[in-house]
Design brief:
Elements (H helix, E strand, L loop, with lengths): L1 E3 L12 E3 L2 E3 L6 H12 L5 E2 L7 H4 L4 H18 L23 H7 L12 H20 L4 E4 L21 H11 L5 E5 L6 H7 L5 E8 L24 E6 L5 H18 L3 E6 L16 H12 L5 E5 L5 H17 L1
Parallel strand pairs: 1-4, 1-5, 5-10, 6-7, 6-9, 7-8, 9-10
Antiparallel strand pairs: 2-3
Helix pairs in contact: 1-10, 3-4, 5-6, 8-9, 9-10
Bound molecules: 7-[(3-aminopropyl)amino]-1,1,1-trifluoroheptane-2,2-diol (FKS) and zinc ion.
7-[(3-aminopropyl)amino]-1,1,1-trifluoroheptane-2,2-diol binds next to loops.
Length: about 350
């Protein structure tokens, strides 16, 4: 399984996020990708390659042009206004207010295009985010060339980013961009399986009306967990996409026994959809030791997760999402990949 990884991930290194009422050091930090890379080296996993640059076109297939333009200039505009400190939004639209007019003010536009205060835009955000999308796109290229699997070690992550919004540490939706690229490369149908602890609200929004792309997600129930306003079981898609969205919310405290049963349900739905390829949004924040999450998977459970995903029997692109127990993240992510390969 080829691994795509870009050193440019380091350019996204935010100083702080707003968490539990305090500005705290960002959980989503460069050490996350480093430790996964190191672990793959240690176990002698398949080669790591830098991604090919794919340019703007494949991003424009998924994201709004105005949003992409905003992301490219936001940092420069912010620094001119406020100086050299992470750009964080402070205001959002509420019911009865209006989104008709895109604010000219950079502060107004940060709020317009985001949904949380945990996702700093920094000097290197655009380059890091595009390098992650390039890794996902390079992985999709490998599947198209006939590989059984590939791993895109993306950072920053992507599954909370929608057509025209960022949040939850995500700017460009790497998984959706890869899925779209597989479609454009000739796959008639694709499925995205999201095993990150948090609901992939961005992927859901992007694929909501799509009958050619199935989105299936296991995640902490939004009644008690971020992103709170997306991820309920009755969200099933609309229009041509009605029935092509399956949310499987699980309670805090979920362990492997309950998780595995639900993963079976997910696998059954994916097989019934009969896609040509599978994209896995791979977060390891379902781990019991994760500092911001509340599931109870053990490191060896991730081997079983990889084997279960292999059992779906599809060409599979793994795309890195969350996971914040940095010391154990390398082992947990590598376990999914080796569990898949050894199945
Ligand atoms: C905890 C607050 C948590 C934000 C959580 C973001 C999760 C991001 C992620 C991704 F995969 F995108 F990285 N706030 N008190 O793990 O889903
Ligand atoms: Zn997550």
């Amino acid at each position: 399984m080829i691994v795509f990884y870009s050193e440019e991930h380091r350019l996204q290194s935010g100083r702080s996020e707003l968490n539990d009422g305090q500005l705290v050091p960002c959980y989503e930090k460069p050490a996350r990708a480093d430790i996964v890379r190191d672990r793959l080296d240690t176990i002698g996993f398949d080669p790591v390659q830098a991604p090919e640059p794919h340019g703007l076109a494949p991003l424009e297939r998924v994201h709004d042009a105005g949003y992409l333009a905003f992301l490219q200039t936001a940092w420069t505009e912010w620094v001119e206004e406020h100086g050299d400190w992470d750009a964080l939004p402070l205001n959002w639209v509420a019911p009865g207010m209006h989104r008709r007019v895109v604010p000219r003010s950079i502060d107004g536009r940060l709020g317009y295009y985001s949904f949380d205060a945990g996702t700093p835009i920094t000097a290197g955000t655009w380059r890091a985010a595009t390098s992650a999308a390039d890794s996902a796109l390079s992985g999709a290229d490998r599947l198209r060339a006939g590989d059984r699997s590939a791993f895109a070690l993306c950072r920053p992550p992507g599954h909370h980013a929608g057509k025209a919004f960022y949040g939850g540490y995500c700017f460009l939706n790497n998984a959706a961009i890869a899925a779209q690229s597989l479609r454009d490369g000739g796959a008639a149908r694709v499925a995205v399986l999201d095993v990150d602890y948090h609901h992939g609200n961005g992927t859901q929004e992007i694929l909501w009306e799509r009958g050619d792309a199935l989105f299936v997600s296991l995640h902490a129930d939004p009644v008690e967990e971020f992103p709170y306003f997306s991820g309920h079981a009755d969200e099933t898609g609309a229009g041509a996409g009605e029935g092509a969205n399956l949310n499987l919310p699980l309670p805090w405290g979920t362990d492997w026994a309950a998780y595995a049963e639900t993963l079976d349900v997910a696998a059954g739905r994916i097989r019934a959809f009969a896609p040509d390829a599978l994209v896995v949004s791979l977060g390891a924040d379902t781990y019991g030791g994760d500092p911001i999450s509340r599931f109870r998977l053990l490191s060896e459970d991730f081997l079983r997760m990889g084997a279960a995903i292999a059992g779906i029997g599809l060409p599979t692109l793994f795309v890195m999402e969350g996971g914040y127990a940095v010391d154990d993240l390398g082992v947990n992510v590598a376990n999914v990949l080796t569990g898949f390969e050894d199945a």
